[in-house]
Amino acid sequence: MLIASTLPLLAWAQAAPVPRFASLTVVVFLVLFVGCLLGWLVASVLGFARARAFGPATRWFAFACVCLLGFNLHLLAVAVLGMTETDPEKVLSFGAFAPLFLLLGSLCAIIGFLRLTNPRP
Description:
Order of helices and strands: HHHHH
Distance between the termini: 70 Å
Radius of gyration: 21 Å
Number of helices: 5
């Protein structure tokens, strides 16, 4: 019964046209994506460079920046794999680990905040 009720939906999904994006949307996405990559790269390099002068908390914030840089690179790898791979199961299983970088980045930021000492009066 369930299979018979989903057949019209399946036929409609196969006959639906492929959505097209405006060229401006692609340009805006690419500019923002490259900006994110460069921003997290600069933030992590500056964080590690200044960690010696400002203490261990800065190093943890730099680790958080590296995790977010890894998240962006992972999204890029999932997109490339999605364009080249025909098996959606493989793409989704590879893409399922994207939140891991966000989790690690948030943990590093939390540790960085906990390591901050000498608050101003």
